[in-house]
Design goal:
two-stranded antiparallel ribbon, alpha/beta, MurR/RpiR family transcriptional regulator (chains A, B), homodimer, 7 strands, 2 domains, elongated, 5-stranded parallel β-sheet, transcription (chains A, B), Rossmann fold, DNA-binding, 10% strand, RpiR-like (chains A, B), Homeodomain-like_sf (chains A, B), Arc Repressor Mutant, subunit A
Chain lengths: 277, 277
DNA sequence: TATTAAATGAAATAAATAGTTCATTTTTGT
DNA sequence: ACAAAAATGAACTATTTATTTCATTTAATA
């Protein structure tokens, strides 16, 4: 019997061997099967107390399943928790540690696989960390605004571009602030009281985006912000602020989660319009 | 100021005092705000490395916020994670059991979850169905081209936009064909023999994109195509053709997989340039 | 720019946590 | 019921992890 590589395997092994274990080891087994969170977080001493066995029994249990110590079992549970909820950064680090030169570092396919992995993770995080309330508020604001001005420069420009396209398809008066013809100021000055500004900006935050945010605040317009950190300079001006944890490969940040968020907003808005007309 | 009793309180305190903190303490602050899971799981040594500060700074940070040590902060995040995962597991179970009206069909969060889900799958598919050979050939062609012309209209415009941005950062002569000022024909006619055209087009295929493809073929330029079907009208002209299977929610197609592909190409190219110079 | 205070980081120390040992108890087979 | 073997638990040791210290650097003040 090989040593278990993840929780599911371990649980299977425990169940299949349960009847052959000694009394104390059964106690441990049943605790291990029922208390995932405790295993991930508590110390051996605490776990031993909870399971009502001496600490050494835990180590014996681990060794009975071919581990070098109980800590390896705890690691298993930790990693599982991380995979369920973790920020992609944690994930990526784990990947790098556990998956050395498989596809070949720097090779295109390897890069693609890393991005795919990291994006997939970021998607999950986005879905779990975004609240219904934020979303509904944002959609509501979008649906009530006279005009919607969208700004996102440099890296964020493509996201802004897409959102503008999508909102137009939801029959919104959406305008992309692109600075075309050097007309940033002219475009910025259009924002009025019943309008809404949606800014997308990641570190390093573009000057113009921050300026628009200020201008919008002054004009009394509502604001939705999509950014990458709680302490983003934009967060201060926002009515609704989405902090998106994008994945990255080496130093290259992905965009996928932001794109997903933006598209979800547009589609949710489309649904809403449909139901109210 | 009383000591924070939970994550939300702590985050508020950090944000409000951020500007008054020293440089290193700000580094820690920003890491603490953005890496919940790392804080729950990693040791001080690991966190210090990730935040790029010495361990002692973490303890100083904790003390600046009235904790007795950094471990108290870690406890805060652990407790929060336990609560969060418990409720997430519950929610996930409920979702599966009551599929229909639980999160609410058409509700923003439900839409976001669906998109996150299908995108995550699409990522996986992309990573497994794309071949090393295609990718390497594409990267090679990109690195050798005199000029790179990129076209993608309507829905694909944002992807084209992003690729242009990314290639410019990899020090490529990349040009976005955007039809600005009604100059499609003028832009198209620039394509020469040693140039490369990268077209992105999904059904329904934009006329201009197909035209460019033909023009490029006539001019003897190389072509990379990103599309959604083997029988796309573009596939015929391509030297390398990526068929991307995007996810969709109801009738709304996602874009994330294409974005991921495009970014991987750009990063792979950047790596290649770096290694050859 | 000289002086002092604040911030920083490397290395040492303290605390905690995990794992080992061995004497004792319990079980098993005859 | 009696070895012999297996299981058990208390106390000990080793290891890892958190915290403190202090010499050095950086920034502020006069």
């Amino acid at each position: 019997m090989p040593v278990a590589k993840n929780i599911v395997q371990l649980q299977q092994q425990i169940r299949s061997r349960y009847d052959d274990l000694s009394k104390r080891l059964q106690q441990v087994a049943s605790y291990v099967l029922d208390n995932n969170n405790s295993l991930a977080f508590d110390t051996i001493a605490v776990i031993a107390t909870q399971a009502d066995v001496p600490p050494s029994t835990l180590i014996r249990f681990a060794k009975a399943f071919e581990f070098s110590g109980f800590n390896e079992i705890k690691q298993l549970f930790r990693r599982d928790l991380i995979e369920e909820t973790a920020s992609y950064t944690d994930r990526a680090r784990l990947l790098k540690e556990h998956e050395p030169e498989q596809t070949g570092r720097g090779k295109p396919l390897h890069i693609l696989q890393q991005f795919a992995q990291v994006n997939s993770q970021a998607m999950h995080q986005l879905a779990t960390q975004t609240s219904q309330q934020q979303l509904e508020m944002a959609v509501d604001m979008l649906s009530k605004a006279d005009n919607i001005y969208i700004i996102g420069l440099r890296r964020s420009f493509s996201i802004a571009t897409y959102l503008t396209y999508a909102l137009r398809h939801a029959e919104c008066r959406a305008f992309l602030i692109d600075g075309l013809g050097g007309m940033f100021n002219e475009q910025l000055s259009m924002v009025g009281k019943n309008d809404l500004v949606l800014s997308i900006s990641f570190s390093p935050y573009a000057e113009e985006t921050v300026m628009l945010s200020k201008a919008a605040a002054k004009a009394g317009a509502q604001q939705i912000i999509i950014t990458d950190s709680q302490i983003s300079p934009l967060a201060a001006y926002s009515d609704v602020c989405f902090v998106v944890n994008e994945g990255k490969v080496d130093e290259f940040r992905s965009q996928s989660a932001s794109l997903c968020l933006v598209q979800s907003l547009a589609v949710a808005l489309a649904f809403k319009q449909e139901n109210t007309h």
